[in-house]
Amino acid sequence: MSERSGLDEDMAQGLSEVPTSDGLAGPAVRRARAWLSRAAEPGSVAFWRFVEDAGPVEAVRRLRAGRAPDAVRALVGARAGQDASLTDLLRAERCGARLVVPEDDEWPAHLLHCLTLATGEEPDDPRHHSPRTTAPVPPLALWIRGAARLDELADRSVALVGARASTAYGEHVAGELGHQLGERGWTVVSGGAFGIDAAAHRGALAADAATVAVLACGVDRPYPAAHGALFHRIAESGLLVSEWPPGAAPHKHRFLVRNRLIAALTRGTVVVEAAARSGAQATARRAHRLGRQVMVVPGPVTSAMSVGCHELLREAELAAVLVTNAAQVVELVGRLGEDLADPPERPSGPRDELSDLAVRVLDACPVRNGVSPERLARVAGCDVLDVLRVLPALELADLVEVTDAGWRLARPGRTGEGRG
């Protein structure tokens, strides 16, 4: 039996396949979605609608038989006659990966529903669809490497994104945010790239927390290659996620397509550093379009890597919020009334609790030579009795001292010298 006829027979038998009792899709559906993940590049509104209407198994049968609409068949082209679905599934299994499909209970349906709603707003005429690299299309399937469940990690997750050519400041902030979010039980999601992405992942790992890298290539193909060890650590406690099957190359256009998943799989997106034109800015705008909270870390106004951050803050329609630590991030994306950030600590001193009268008397005290209560009353603009009433309290607070000549401000290192 040829590989082609084997797939076609499996699809024919899969038409009557019923869902399994363990929350997993049947083998025919899984194989169909594996085939679809290689047959067409993700992000096409027309292709997703075709699969959604026909079902994955019937969609494969029509594409293989040449009975799909012309616009859809054009997206597949010569791939319609190829089949590497079983090879892809086996290759995934060998590297500890699996294919998660919408029919599985692990599928993060509640988070990805925003993509379904956004796709529903696309016009019926394919000529007016959003470009594939920016269209808010739900994934047909996700290749996952790692033992953790995608739905559980994504439930409380935040995207940290930023420039590849990051500064030391940006990497420090990203690492701190990743670590602090991990300590609070939140999953850090990023793209696994150089710069801010890597710093965010490493920060989460340093807190012994899970982190998710959404890749633009196969989960068995580390890119950049220098991050092979990092991806291995991520897969041990978190997940590597991709729409492309094992072995897929990291083509440039795929990075633009995958950004929508980073935005959709999380409750909010934090842009740590971004140049005037950057993928991080695009991810933030996609997050806003999907109804997600956009957050921005400010940077030096002299830094080219913070220009994009400041521009996002200036765009009123994005409603981006300035954040400086994980507590502020969690307050925006966490549970209402529960995940609240503590107010920033402010330095306090003995003057903070003084009454208006006491402040006036204190300001009237000279630095060097002591003066009488009557002189203090004239300078402070109050009665002598008021001065005599507050001076003992100011002395107990080590703010003033009494000398042979009268009252003056307490000198540093000699507080309390005049008591008694």
UniProtKB/TrEMBL annotation:
Residue span, Smf/DprA SLOG domain: 134-332
GO BP annotations, alphabetical order: DNA-mediated transformation
Domain of life: Bacteria
Pfam family, one: DNA_processg_A
Region (Disordered), start-end ranges: 1-24
NCBIfam families recorded: dprA
Family: Belongs to the DprA/Smf family.
This protein's name: DNA processing protein
Organism: Geodermatophilus africanus
